[in-house]
Write a structure and sequence with these properties.
This protein has 64 residues and is an all-alpha fold. The protein has helices at residues 3-34, 43-63.
Length: 64
């Protein structure tokens, strides 16, 4: 293997590694944004609304 081929292989491996790390960072950022309340459309907001409704239903059942 010549020096040029070794350099090309190293650059290719670095490029693939950096691309993979960038993809993982993007995925983590995207999924974490769903777990923060943002005013109504995130998963966290939907879970909070459901918890309030369940609590209300429990209160109605306990009163009867």
């Amino acid at each position: 293997m010549t020096l040029e081929q070794q350099a090309a292989l190293i650059v290719s491996l670095i490029t693939i590694t950096v691309s993979f790390v960038g993809l993982v960072r993007w995925l983590v950022k995207h999924y974490l944004s769903e777990l923060r309340p943002n005013g109504g459309s995130s998963l966290k907001d939907q879970v909070n609304r459901l918890e309030k409704k369940v609590d209300t239903l429990y209160e109605v059942l306990i009163k009867k």
